Amino acid sequence: MRENYKPLERYLSSLAGRTLSHSRSLNALGSSVDKLPRSAFLYRQWWANDKRHVHAIAWLLSGWRVQSVNLASQSVVFVRG
């Protein structure tokens, strides 16, 4: 199942800088992994920096962590770390 998030890991690994200063649209991130699950749009907990979840491992292994999520505007801010 982790392979489902390899495109997201590759996308984030390719980004330079310490902070993604502009919030990334959940839809744009979804296109990096074909499609994010519905729960990513409904539950903030989906975006937890928790190594027990395969999707979180994708951004953690690429050197990023989620700083904030705004489900209403469908955006997420990642920071290096």
Blueprint of the fold:
Elements: H1 6-13, E1 24-25, H2 26-32, H3 38-42, H4 54-61, E2 64-70, E3 75-80
Antiparallel strand pairs: 1-3, 2-3
Helix pairs in contact: 1-4
What is the overall shape?
Answer: globular
Order of secondary-structure elements: HEHHHEE
Number of strands: 3
User: What structural class do the secondary elements suggest?
Assistant: alpha+beta
Q: Kindly state the mean pLDDT as a whole number?
A: 81
Spatial extent as radius of gyration:
11 Å
Strand numbers in spatial order across the main sheet: 1-3-2
How is the main sheet built? 3 strands, antiparallel
Strand content: 15-25%
Q: Which spans of ≥5 residues are poorly predicted at pLDDT below 50?
A: none
Helix content: 25-40%
Number of domains: 1
Q: Helix count?
A: 4
Descriptive notes:
It is a single chain. By secondary structure, the protein is an alpha+beta fold. The chain has one domain. Helix content is 35%, strand content 19%. It has four helices and three strands, in the order H-E-H-H-H-E-E. The protein has a three-stranded antiparallel beta sheet with strand order 1-3-2. A hairpin with a 4-residue loop joins strand 2 and strand 3. Helix 1 packs parallel to helix 4. The longest helix has 8 residues. The model has no long low-confidence stretch (mean pLDDT 81).
